[in-house]
Write a structure and sequence with these properties.
The chain is mostly beta strands and 117 residues long. The chain has no helices and 11 strands. The strands form 2 sheets. Strands 2, 4, 5, 6, 9, 10 and 11 form a 7-stranded mixed beta sheet that branches. It has a 4-stranded antiparallel beta sheet with strand order 1-3-8-7, with no helix packed on it. The termini are far apart.
Length: 117
């Protein structure tokens, strides 16, 4: 029923910006949490930022001050504005959603972010 569709990845120079978007299409129940993860080659998948349906926000320490997560509850979308990007930010970025009373998990297929000069 629910599909998460990510967009906005690409190639950007160090210091540049990207905005990632994730749309939870087909969601008919409450979205409890939406999260942006990333995974670089040889690394664990890690949380970048998350936001609850009630508006509570968490950022990983390296991203504080550079990244901003936001949610449009009416459209069931979540965005991640990424500024002052570094080569270390290079990774596949994944959208995750926890939806409904049963807390069903959904994952997007990922979008590649490459930061390079």
């Amino acid at each position: 029923q629910v599909q998460l569709v990510e967009s906005g990845g690409g190639l950007v120079q160090p210091g540049g910006s990207l905005r990632l978007s994730c749309a939870a299409s087909g969601a008919t129940q409450r979205i409890n949490v939406m999260v942006w993860y990333r995974q670089a080659p040889g690394s664990y998948r890690e949380v970048v930022a998350r936001i609850t349906g009630g508006g509570s926000i968490f950022y990983a320490d390296p991203e504080k001050g550079r990244f901003t997560i936001s949610m449009d509850n009416a459209k069931n979308t979540v965005d991640l504005q990424m500024n002052n990007l570094r080569p270390e930010d290079t990774a596949i970025y994944y959208c995750y959603a926890d939806i409904g009373a049963e807390r069903a998990d959904y994952w997007g297929s990922g979008t590649q972010v490459t930061v390079s000069s």
